[in-house]
Amino acid sequence: MLLRSDAEVALDEALLAAAEAARIYREAAFKCHSPIRPQLAAAADMRERIAEELAESARRAGWLPRAPD
């Protein structure tokens, strides 16, 4: 069993929230049939990159394990 500090739990929750935001924007873009569809898709792409970069930075800093658990 792995015990995490409050900071590690908060960081993990922030990473999950960033990934969830990307998923929500992607779903909205998929379902949307209006002129804003490209902007929603671009917002999803940006949020996916942010989530990936945050996770990678956290791993490099040693705040998260190298591989997701």
Key words describing this protein structure:
69 residues; 2 helices
Model description:
- This protein is mainly alpha-helical.
- The chain contains two helices and no strands.
- The longest helix has 26 residues, at 6-31.
- The model has no long low-confidence stretch (mean pLDDT 87).
Give the overall average pLDDT.
87
Low-confidence stretches: none
Tally of separate helices: 2
Query: Any idea what the shape is?
Result: elongated
The string of secondary-structure elements, in order, is HH
Strand portion: under 5%
> Strand count, sense and closure of the main sheet?
none
Structural class: mainly alpha
Distance between the termini: 12 Å
Helix fraction, binned, reads over 70%
Based on DSSP secondary structure assignment, what is the total number of beta strands?
0
Compact overview of the structure:
This protein is mostly helical and 69 residues long.
Give the secondary structure arrangement, pairings included:
Elements: H1 6-31, H2 37-60
